[in-house]
Amino acid sequence: MTSYLLYALAGAALCGIGLFGLLRLSHLLRKLLAFNIMGSGVFLIMVGLPQHQSGPDPVPQALVLTGIVVAIAATALAVVLIRRYYHQSGMTSLEGEAGSREGGPL
Amino acid sequence: MIRAVRTCFIALACIAFSAVLAASIWAIAGDPGQGTLPQLLSENMSRSGVEHPVTAVLLNFRSYDTLLEIGVLVIAGIAGISMSKTTSLEDPELRTSDPLLYALQRWFIPLMLVLAGYLLWAGADRPGGAFQAGAVLAATGVLMRLGGIPMDFLRPGLLLRLGLVLGFSVFLLAAVVSVIGGDAFLAYPPDMTKPLILVIESVLTLSIAMVLLALFVSAPVNDAEDPEEGDPS
């Protein structure tokens, strides 16, 4: 049990927390944040697990670096889409969910 | 009542998901690990043209990933600016007029530009590289925009589109040229590796910064015809 394994297990916990937020919260921005938490959990697992096995491994680190940049761009695009959706429909959550109009302004 | 039951059910499912994930991590961690990838990498480092292993993986051994990544970024950037409703991405109304920000800007912008250049150069032999430099460059752009420094290149037009696709097209060009030369896709000529990586990293930095900045400035939607925020009508 090294500290790197602890990082990987924390990543698993983050995945669970993110999944809960994604399923339970109705506000779109909160869903997006929960999805990002889930992604951070995946990154933690991908860096922590190989480091526990054989020291710092550049290959997963490079993949995670690529993933972080893509995640930032995807998050920014999602924010743009959510704002557009809000201006078109006046709602902060998807149709068919309870409390659609209670979310308040973005 | 139904809501509470549903929440409980979802919470249980998520805890089970986490537990399964943690159990599989534990099982993999117990393995001694038969991966030969780090060894393979350290044996081939001398052929990569750079000294830092992460940069070598990003821009030489797994450059296909990086090429696809900048492609995704360009698509996200173009989709972002086509969603924006502001006709000019340089709207004077969106600026803040904070004297503290103006004072800070004079110190920060030159420093951040130098830092971005350093990070780009440092990527060869220590942590750094195109992505970190691009992120710092984009942050500089955000700061400049908030301070109201005119940035004409952000108007939707030729210059913005050129900046967005520059990194991707130069990368793709380097990849295709090696195919035409009879080599594999994305195989750099052995004696040109270092300058090629440097050129690709520089244009990647510029394009990443442009994409992030374009996504930032295209986020605000201010149109008098649309309902005001917090006023659903």
UniProtKB/TrEMBL annotation, chain A:
Domain of life: Bacteria
Entry membrane topology: Multi-pass membrane protein
Subcellular location: Cell membrane
Keyword Transmembrane helix part of the UniProt annotation: yes
TM region(s), chain numbering: 6-25, 32-50, 62-82
Pfam families: Oxidored_q2
Keywords of the record: Cell membrane, Membrane, Oxidoreductase, Transmembrane, Transmembrane helix
Chief location bin: membrane
GO MF term set: oxidoreductase activity
Protein name: NADH-quinone oxidoreductase subunit K
From TrEMBL, chain B:
Keywords: Cell membrane, Membrane, Signal, Transmembrane, Transmembrane helix
Keyword Zinc: no
InterPro entries, per the entry: CPA3_antiporter_subunitB (IPR050622), MnhB (IPR007182)
Subcellular location: Cell membrane
Keyword Methyltransferase (UniProt): no
Domain called Na+/H+ antiporter MnhB subunit-related protein: residue spans: 104-211
Membrane disposition: Multi-pass membrane protein
Record's signal peptide: 1-29
Membrane-traversing stretches: 66-83, 104-123, 129-146, 158-181, 196-217
Family from the record: Belongs to the CPA3 antiporters (TC 2.A.63) subunit B family.
PANTHER family in alphabetical order: NA(+)/H(+) ANTIPORTER SUBUNIT B, NA(+)_H(+) ANTIPORTER SUBUNIT B
Protein name, UniProt field: Sodium:proton antiporter
